[in-house]
Amino acid sequence: MSKYKLFIISALILAWSTSCDNQATPSDNQKDDSSQSENQDEGSETPENETSMSPQDFVPDEFAVFDKIFGDLNDDGQEDCIVITKGTDPNQVVLDEYFGEMDRNRRGIIVLFKDGNTYEQVAKNQSCFSSENEDGGVYFPPELSVEIKKGKLYVHYAHGRYGYWKYTFRYQENSFKLIGYDQTDTQGPVLHYEYSYNFLSARKLTKENINFYSEHPEDEKIQETWEDLEKSKLITLSSIEDFDELHFD
Ligand SMILES: [Ca+2]
Question: How far does the centroid of ligand 1 lie from the alpha carbon of residue 76, in Å?
Fold first, then answer.
């Protein structure tokens, strides 16, 4: 009889502990699910916190790598990486009367800081640059190059005999800020105007070749003018919708 009682008690304990296990399982799963969705949310809201060993891993599926530039952008001696991306939408490949198929997918930029063996994403803008196959009219379209020099990020547009313009960015307060803009207006080898904006000091320097119409570079006579700019919040790289629309003169 006592053996039978013991059996009943053992059976009850077993049943009770199993039900506890069953209860615990879904709540654990629930916990896992919620922490996973929290992580996913964090990932989409703050992609700049993503890390990976390879720059390629930061490029979303529907984009291709157009170019990669290496150099130190935050003065820690570790070589950072800029990835220039390009869209892959087949609808953006158009047929040009003279040049045949032209891929007009826009280009973007991803900036990665090296930290030991991994990269961390610190800035991303997927469509701020037009394609390399825009219609330049009677002249070729401006040629984009992105460079790292002395810890700064330069977005440079060369436009042959008409001159160039370039944007200078520096990493500060957790984002790349536009701190300078330079532009030249030339006619072949002869300079007409050179503008230099410093957004940190809110000052602009204009150099004018007052002997421009002599049409000889050796006759250049430069007159310098300084102006104060209206102080405003620095523009961030990630917020620029279209570099083609970002001009100051
Ligand atoms: Ca670095």
Answer: 5
